[in-house]
Amino acid sequence: MSAELDAGSNSAANEVKGFFERYYGITECLAATQIVRDTVAEDTEGGITTATLYDSLLETLSLIQGDNQEDISYLWVAKFKSGEILQNDGQVYGPADLDYTTREWYSLVMEKGGSVATEAYISVNTNGLMVTVASPVFVNGQIQGIVGIDLNMENLNQLLGSVKVGNTGYITLYDSNGQILFHPDSSLIGINATEANYSSNMLNAIVNKENHSAMLYTRSGTRYYGSTTSIDSVGYTMLGVMPEAEFVSYTNGVLRILVVGIVTCAVLLTVICVFIALSITRPLKRLDAAVSQLADGELNVTVDTRGHDEVSELGGNVARIVERLKEYIDYINEVSDVLLQIGQGNLAFTLHQDYVGEFSKIKDALLHIQGTLTETMLSIAQSADQVNAGAEQIASGAQALAQGATEQASSVQELSSAVQELSGQATDEANKAVEAGEFLMKIQGEVEKSNEQMSRMRKAMEDISVQSSAIRSIIKTIDDIAFQTNILALNAAVEAARAGSAGKGFAVVADEVRNLAGKSAEAAKKTNELIENSVNAVKHGEELTQTTADSLSVVADGTHQIVNTIHGVAEAYRSQAHRLTEIASGVDQISDVVQTNSATAEQSAAASEELSGQASMMREQVAHFKFEKSGEYIPPVSHSSMPEQDEFTTDFSKY
To answer: What is the per-residue pLDDT across 397-421, written as a single tens digit (0 to 9) for each?
Structure first.
């Protein structure tokens, strides 16, 4: 009975809530319309009736009131700027007629800043109970007016009067101050609950707007059960009332029905439980036996799937598990076999099982491994071929170096022969010098007469000697520069051989070579100047020699043989100097080539040995693998014959 009492109170509360929410919505929508906002914001000298949209506003108010005339007594708009209130019937109340700032709805709207409902009051026109619902009109964020509806509570009270709670129960309604808005006893409408002789517990629930279910209370000495429901949107409280006798009688009847029903249900439940238990335990035992066999690794089990209940569905799922486990065993066997093949180097495998569920990831992983390893191995095989080709190029370079070394050895032999020749000529010149000494002894007397002239000639010859010394110094400088140039050229060649295409070291050496070349040019220039000076000195010596020749005319006959011998010696020495220059140049060239060939040969030997070892190692590793024909690698035609491709796999050990 408590539930019925609560339901009646809640249902009536929802009716009241819906009633007020409807008119809350009307006032809020009307306050937000452009007609109302423009009217309350417009400054007009003649008041609200001279507003631009006055006619439209009045028509709107009349239409709304006409559609809801059973509930709405008046619909009005208050304009703050003029202090006026316009009603739906065209009546306008100005500041002289009333001060709206003293009205309850004004203070509530200004305080809350939103829609409000006033306390119930007695209309002076109809002498009936009324409530005003009001909403503010905002213009530029400020409240410039209020839209209000004066609601007639008669229809609402009739609606509440039709609500029955039980057989003799009823509904009562209280506003936020505890004033009775509706009661079947019309003499109580309009008075406060504190004056209606309620017991303290119910009075507190009404005043404090509390929610209670089937609370026992008294009013004027009579005992009732009541359920209170707070209507938060308007601050009202709804009370569902049922006399104690009816409430107790209904409760006792319900208890008797419940006892009989419980006993009957208990008996039926026992029978049903036994039947269900048997229908569940028997199939479960069979499933337990099947699952035990599965736990022991036995997959040849039969699962009973007869029936249409949950246990039969469970049996069907177990049967599916058995079938799936059998498929998984096939998966595992195939995966194990494929992994064994991969371990043995065979990448030309095929997966025959249709992998589903999580096992599809294993299939994808195996295929990915196959593709990745095949691509890697083929790449290694190609690299091995490239390394082999590089080794062949290095071997060719080594042969060229060997040939160059042979040619340089021949040049060294020729130079050796030339040196031996020069040695013989030097011996002959020594013999001639001995003969010239004998002749000079004979003409010693005449030579003494010519000492004075010879002294002058010696002075000139000393000048020539000085210039010759300077020439020799410059030539020494040129030789040093040439030697350094050769060393740098050698280093440049070594660096180029080591750096390959980079060639950074060669650039540094080449720059140094250019500096030395500049020094050589400068030395050559100085040498040219000194040679010219030497020529002049020689001319001066010739003049002195001519003077001396006059003095030595006496010994002309004796010195004739000496002059011839000296000429021969001079010619031999000039020839010897020319040959020695050629020998020096050849020796330098041989030194450059030999040193370059030596460094290149050492590097080529080391690189060739390393490349050969790496190529052999890569081929040995790749030879362990077999690949699918679609991805096989065929080496370039660099062998005497190619292996036949008559199978779907390629064995790299053939190559």
So the answer is: 766 776 766 676 667 667 666 666 7
Q: Using only C-alpha atoms, what is the Rg of the chain? A: 66
Is the confidence at residue 445, as pLDDT, over 70? no
Residues 653 and 345: their CA atoms lie apart, in Å, by 12
CATH classification at residue 442: 1.10.287
- Cα dist. 297→325, 353, 464 in Å? 10, 22, 118
Q: 193-235: per-residue pLDDT in tens?
A: 899 889 999 999 998 989 888 889 999 889 999 999 998 878 8
Q: Tell me whether residue 365 is in a domain.
A: no
Asked if residue 16 belongs to a domain, the reply is yes
Give the angle 362-365-366 at the CA atoms, nearest 5°.
85
Phi, psi (deg, nearest 5) at residue 36: -65, -45
Tell me the DSSP string of 570-593: HHHHHHHHHHHHHHHHHHHHHHHH
What gap in Å lies between CA 194 and CA 130, rounded to an integer? 21
Contact 346, 627 (CB under 8 A): no
Question: 166 with 251: CB under 8 angstroms?
Answer: no
Largest CA distance in the chain: 189
Q: Is residue 643 part of a domain?
A: no
When divided into structural domains, the chain yields a total of: 2
Give 377-442 as a DSSP string: HHHHHHHHHHHHHHHHHHHHHHHHHHHHHHHHHHHHHHHHHHHHHHHHHHHHHHHHHHHHHHHHHH
Is the overall model pTM greater than 0.70, yes or no? no
